[in-house]
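Q: Here's a chain of 118 amino acids. Please give me its 3D structure as tokens.
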Amino acid sequence: MGSCAAPSAKGDDKFITTDYLQQCRQEESSKAAELQARQEKLDALRKLMEEDGINPEELLGSFQAKSTATKKSRGPRPAKYSFTDENGETKTWTGQGRTPKALAEQIAAGKSLDDFLI
């Protein structure tokens, strides 16, 4: 068996062998050793930072401030062009996105886009 999960009740797996128990103990002790080594490294880094006058919370706060900063949404763009559609209504367009059909028709008829500037 590759892991130390509890054996299932199917077939030959319902009895725990001594080899299996030893393997589980070895895996647990290696995990504990890895965790202890990691904690020792963290403690050493914390000590180095404190010796240099760096507060660990301050350091973490600088990373969190950058990652949690949200981008402000822009407000609506001001209209840049004004034109009259086929119904005689005056419409505006910001200049972004697809050109409105009525404006495109007037440009195709020979007018310049600059003629519609507000």
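Q: Can you summarize the key feature?
A: The chain has a mean pLDDT of 84.
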